[in-house]
Amino acid sequence: SQTIHQWPATLVQPVGSPLSLECTVEGTSNPNLYWYRQAAGRGLQLLFYSVGIGQISSEVPQNLSASRPQDRQFILSSKKLLLSDSGFYLCAWSPGQAEKLFFGSGTQLSVL
Amino acid sequence: GQSLEQPSEVTAVEGAIVQINCTYQTSGFYGLSWYQQHDGGAPTFLSYNALDGLEETGRFSSFLSRSDSYGYLLLQELQMKDSASYFCAVGGGTGGFKTIFGAGTRLFVKA
User: Which of A66, A83, B20, B32 would you call most buried, defined as having the most Cβ atoms within 10 angstroms of its Cβ?
Assistant: First the structure.
């Protein structure tokens, strides 16, 4: 069966520090991968998605970037965090045309 | 671009039926899906419609009308554990891989 791993569960970072969140999928090949951010009590904002290694579509460039160095690995990064980067970050994967997304458990990021 | 609208809150009593509506605008529509999210948790998939009509999965059903750019999620025999946020999401863009979510509907189930 397929599983998605996302870590850490919580993260507290000072303003201006770098960020690296990693997500890996097991049990499938060539998944479509997604990064979303959710503010408290709000909807999911699509940040990046990838349909293959090295292929990244950016929806909200700002000071975030994403990379897909391996087929089942998706990394979200920032060189300098802003206060506005705080939120619940969710990684997800889908097998096909995004008819069904499977989410990781999320990372609660607090930038102080 | 893509956008979705759904009510912010719905309240219903245990055992009742509730319908959560969703209207959308998108280019290259590939399907409408629904997700449930409990506080502090990740969204979980509930249902998906690519074609017009009703899809039934246990107590949950989802409906789609592509000509009206409209869909709804129907929850029957409501239980307290159904209290959660419900999101509609639309797949679009080139190849249908770009999935955008609505702002979510908070469902409160009362005893």
Answer: B32
Q: From chain A, which residues contact B within 8 Å (Cβ)?
A: 32, 34, 36, 42-46, 49, 51, 57, 59, 90, 94, 97-106
Residues of A in Cβ contact (< 8 Å) with B71: none
pLDDT tens-digit series, residues B5-61: 999 999 999 999 999 999 999 887 889 999 999 999 999 999 999 999 999 989 999
**Per residue in A26-66, pLDDT tens?**
999 999 999 999 998 889 999 999 999 989 998 876 899 99
The token duo for B103 is 């702002």
Q: How far, in whole angstroms, is CA B21 from its chain's centroid?
A: 7
Residues 68-87 of B with CB under 8 A from A: 87
Cross-chain residue pair A98–B35, CB shorter than 8 Å: no
Q: How far apart are CA B23 and CA B65, in angstroms?
A: 10
B98 contacts in chain A (CB < 8 Å): 46, 49, 57, 59, 98
Contacting residues for A62 by C-beta, under 8 A, at least 6 apart: none
Beta bridge partners of B84: B107
